[in-house]
Amino acid sequence: MSTTLEYEPNRTTFLREIRVWRCTPATRAWFWWFIQASAYLTFKIIYRLKVYGLENMPKTGGVMIASSHQSYLDPALLGALPRRPTAFLANAYLFKNPFLGWFIRNLNAFPIEQGKGDRAAVTQAIDRLKDGYVLTIFPEGHRSPDGDLRTLERGFTLVARKAGVPILPAVIDGAYHAWPRRKKFPGVHPVHILFGKPIDVSQMNAQEIVAAVTKALEELTIDLRNRRGTSGWPEWYAQHGRRLPGSDDQPINSEDEDA
Fold first, then answer.
1. Distance separating alpha carbons of residues 174 and 159, to the nearest angstrom
2. pLDDT grade, residue 51 (50/70/90)?
3. Percent composition of the chain: helix, strand, coil (DSSP 3-state, to 5)
4. What is the CATH architecture of 14-227?
5. pLDDT tens string 170-221
6. Looking at residue 258, what is its pLDDT?
7. Are the C-beta atoms of residues 125 and 159 closer than 8 Å to each other?
8. Inter-CA distances, 246 with 11, 45, 101, 158, Å
9. pLDDT per residue over 115-143, tens digit each?
């Protein structure tokens, strides 16, 4: 695959006829830079975003970010951080909307048919990594129902081994409280992200990769939550006199109960 600037005109709809210069693995196009800067500023102001360990990301070459998955916010949160363009897989149904499909495609997203063994998506993921892109995946497969780490699926191991790239573990905390699965719209809650050290999986089999990434994510989760003291979130909500999302909407303090 070429790593030079290119564009993809769409001949079927007006939106796809708009030519947006695509990113290369090493540089951010103006469209990507604008969206990334806007997203980062939004998350910083609204969600009090704090990021740790971003210096662990390799500056060149393909790398797979394997992250915990708490909410719909996660892809945007991770995409707003690196100084390198990030590619990511998105559910194929998102591309059926003309505007949304055009938008996320120009942010280096490509579709995957979940649950159908989409070989084309796997091949494209491998190609993106070999070309030197950062590829974000969520090995749990689905958003966590309670904010805690779930069992990892093994599909990502094939991509990492075939591409021959390191895996960068990352954990997100607070995004579940900002937008739990059962909520239609996001709320406001502090979000923290912690990146670990890259994991060399070149000599590992699938089972060993899953075990290594699971261990890294579990340790990073404990580390990140300890930075606030225990989980930190119930205390934060109590201080602000608000209810904790995802806790069956039970009040945090007696004043809320009286209300």
1. 29
2. very high
3. 40, 15, 50
4. 3-Layer(aba) Sandwich (3.40)
5. 999 999 988 888 888 888 889 999 999 999 999 999 999 999 999 999 999 9
6. 35
7. yes
8. 45, 23, 30, 34
9. 666 788 889 899 999 989 899 999 998 88
Of 29-43, 220-234, 237-251, minimum mean pLDDT range? 237-251
The burial class, CB within 10 Å (0-12 / 13-18 / 19+), for 195 is buried
- Report domain extents, the chain: 14-227
CB half-sphere exposure, 225, CA atoms < 13 A: 19
Residue by residue, DSSP assigns 157-183 as HHHHHHHT--EEEEEEESHHHHS-TT-
Give CA–CA dist 151/133, Å, rounded: 26
Q: Where are the extended beta strands (E) located within the chain?
A: 50-52, 63-67, 86-91, 109-112, 134-137, 167-173, 192-195
- Return the residue matching tokens 């290119």: 6
In angstroms, the Cα distances linking 181 to 55, 70, 151, 192 are 31, 8, 17, 18
Task: Report how far apart, in Å, the C-alpha atoms of 247 and of each of 146, 176, 257 are.
Answer: 9, 11, 14
| 178 token code pair | 């900002």
**Shortest CA distance to 30 belongs to which of 57, 67, 59, 5?**
5
For 15, the token pair is 């939106």
The structure's pTM equals 0.76
Contact 83, 28 (CB under 8 A): yes
User: Edge-to-edge strands of the sheet including 86-91?
Assistant: 50-52, 192-195, 167-173, 63-67, 134-137, 86-91, 109-112
